[in-house]
């Protein structure tokens, strides 16, 4: 991970900060992966309940998925516009599918 030092180039301090930034990047990527992965799993379960028209489980799974999406957004794992878009699409799908059968 260490960056090769060119002749007479950057001082030692710059190399240390770049190494630290690389370490921080790896740590943050791991943390973000947890939030994004749990969000995707929750959304997948909610969509599955919606398509199976499981009226007893769908509302709670949708709420859980929305909670996970918003948590990922609050932790900056995904962009705030992506949060809004994902919630909007999930609710649009739920309303269209669940209302068409009742």
Can you put this structure into words, describing what you see?
This protein has 102 residues and is mainly alpha-helical. The chain has one domain (12-101): Up-down Bundle (Methane Monooxygenase Hydroxylase, Chain G, domain 1), CATH 1.20.58.110. Helix content is 77%, strand content 0%. The protein has three helices and no strands. The chain has helices spanning 12-51, 58-74, 80-101. The longest helix has 40 residues, at 12-51. The protein is elongated. It starts with 11 loop residues before the first helix and ends with a helix. The model has no long low-confidence stretch (mean pLDDT 88).
Give structural attributes:
102 residues; elongated; 3 helices
Lay out the secondary structure.
Elements: H1 12-51, H2 58-74, H3 80-101
Helix pairs in contact: 1-2, 1-3, 2-3
Oligomeric status of the shown chains? single chain
Helix count, per DSSP? 3
Biggest sheet, open or closed, and with what strands and sense?
none
What's the total number of strands? 0
Average of per-residue pLDDT values:
88
Count of folded domains: 1
The assigned structural class equals mainly alpha
**The CATH homologous superfamily:** Ribosomal protein S20
Residue fraction in strands: under 5%
> End-to-end span in angstroms?
58 Å
Helix percentage range: over 70%
Q: Give the uncertain stretches in residue-range form.
A: none
> Which CATH-level-2 architecture?
Up-down Bundle
Order of helices and strands: HHH
Rg measurement, Å: 21 Å
Shape: elongated
Class in CATH?
A: Mainly Alpha
């Amino acid at each position: 991970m260490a960056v090769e030092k060119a002749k007479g180039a950057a001082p030692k301090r710059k190399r240390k900060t770049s190494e630290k930034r690389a370490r921080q990047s790896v740590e943050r990527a791991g943390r973000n992966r947890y939030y994004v992965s749990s969000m995707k799993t929750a959304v997948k379960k909610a969509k599955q309940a919606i398509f199976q028209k499981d009226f007893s489980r769908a509302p709670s799974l949708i709420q859980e998925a929305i909670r996970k999406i918003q948590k990922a957004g609050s932790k900056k794992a995904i962009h705030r516009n992506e949060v809004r878009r994902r919630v909007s699409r999930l609710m649009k799908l739920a309303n269209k599918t669940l209302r068409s059968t009742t």
